[in-house]
Write a structure and sequence with these properties.
- By secondary structure, the chain is of the alpha/beta class.
- About 45% of the residues lie in helices and about 20% in strands.
- The chain has an 8-stranded mixed β-sheet, sandwiched between helices.
- Helix 1 packs across helix 2.
- The N terminus is likely disordered.
């Protein structure tokens, strides 16, 4: 009997994960918005990216979406689609382009663990150069108004904050549960930075007071919001079948805040 209980406990999360993956795929396939895969040249490299367009009649702001430490997953693509639904062009680059076996990308790694290991071995200068190439590409699209913001989750959140120190013409940076740069780099930030953090994520949140102090001293805009009771990764976790109420609320409130801030750009 005990072994059956253990097997059941292992099977339930797997079933929920499978159902979520199926739901995510269905959402992407049934979206009425235009999606496409593009390849953006960056020196000798080609950066694969997922590009989405809103159904609007005017030129609009573009948002670069930086993925988590698992690479460019289907969930990140749904975030891009959600931004397009809200009225923005969204482009999600696969920063693991060319880094998988045989020069592949995220989907070519044998496992998420393998992709995660590769993420932490990416040269920072390469990441910045890839993002610059994506910035230049999306800013010049005929449907874009030239304004480009950046947003990222977890590892991507930290990269978002770091990119703001390297790109002076960003319209805004939206950091979802990512750590910030050091005090010396803060002075290079020109755009407002908006933070989204789970209350039960002190590994990341412990860095907020110092970042707040450094940004204020440098005369920069930094507005962190902490969603009480939510954990790390609440934007993804909050839509899962077994999501806690705190994660669900944080995801809903986070999306609303994000969209309201984008409207002001």
């Amino acid at each position: 009997m005990k072994s059956k209980v253990v097997l059941l406990n292992l099977a339930v999360p797997l079933m929920l994960s499978t159902l979520l993956a199926q739901e995510t795929t269905t959402r992407l396939e049934s979206s009425p918005r235009h999606h496409e895969w593009v390849k953006v040249k960056q020196g000798e490299r080609e950066v694969h990216a997922y590009l989405t367009f809103p159904e609007v009649s005017e030129k609009v702001t573009a948002v670069i979406v930086i993925h988590e430490n698992m690479g460019l997953t289907d969930w990140v693509r749904t975030v891009a689609d959600g931004l397009a639904e809200a009225g923005y062009i969204a482009i999600a680059p696969d920063l693991l382009s060319g880094m998988a076996p045989n020069g592949g990308r995220t989907s070519d790694f044998a496992s998420r663990d393998a992709a995660r290991e590769a993420i932490y071995n990416l040269p920072p200068d390469q990441v910045t150069a890839d993002l610059n190439a994506i910035f230049e590409y999306v800013a010049k699209l005929p449907a874009a108004n030239g304004k480009v913001a950046v947003a990222g989750f977890c590892w991507g959140g930290a990269q978002t904050f770091r990119y703001a120190t390297n790109r002076g013409d960003l319209a805004a940076a939206f950091v979802f549960y990512g750590t910030g740069p050091d005090s010396a780099a803060v002075s290079k930030i020109n755009c407002p930075v908006y933070g989204f953090y789970g209350g039960n994520d002190n590994r990341v949140n412990a860095s907020i007071p110092k970042i707040t102090e450094w940004m204020k001293a440098a005369g920069k805009i930094y507005e962190p919001v902490i969603y009480e009771g939510a954990g790390h990764g609440f934007m993804r976790a909050g839509e899962q079948a077994d999501a806690t109420e705190a994660n669900k609320k944080a995801r809903t409130d986070g999306w609303e805040r994000w969209k309201n801030l984008l409207k002001k750009l």
